Amino acid sequence: MTELLHMKDCYLKEFSAKVVKTGEGFVVLDKTAFYPEGGGQESDSGYLEWNGEKIRVVKVEKKGDVIHRVEKTPPIGSEVRGCIDWDKRYARMRMHTAQHLVSYVAMKLFDVTTVGNQIHEEKSRIDFHPANFSEENLKKIENESNKIIESRLEVKIYELPRSEALERVDQKRCDLSRLPSSVKELRMVEISGIDVCPCAGTHVKSLGELGKIRILEKINKGKDKQRIVYHLV
Q1: Domain range spanning residue 24?
Q2: How much is the pTM?
Q3: Which of 108, 139, 195, 223 shows the smallest number of beta carbons within 10 Å?
């Protein structure tokens, strides 16, 4: 199993690792700081370097192994240096933390549940149900989110036993019953004192890093389901 370094340190930009497996157009490492696509968040990209060679990592996927898609593969056993496209990673960290905040605020104000999200560096989206937001509702969500951002609350990442997580997480915020029963420990992301939710994504350490949230539009996605599109300024 590849050790996922981002799970403990989202700010890690570079790392060293060993090549343990290769195939046509991919490489598997014993550890990686590259985020594999999942949970609504795009994968990281960047470079691998070894012995004067430098190759582009265009995509990372978790398919049993963590697969780094590359144009050329280093030899098995090679020591490589990985370097993440930091600007893209950091933009997604900010966006993902903003998603948690907006999901929390919308739930508290309008009793809606987040049923999907997609995290990108320029703009992102969240799907809510049951939702029928007016323009006034959207402004309330935006204003309350930005008011909370001004408090610069700490964002904590830690692990909890599943039983403890069940006691702490609001089921409207996240339905933990959908997780496989084999999952006994959960990685939690907590906006200090207000929101806690299991998440394997990358996040900033403080709401003060977000700037301001701007809601761009709402889109109807079926009966009682609406999408909010937002960006950060």
Answers
A1: 3-84
A2: 0.96
A3: 223
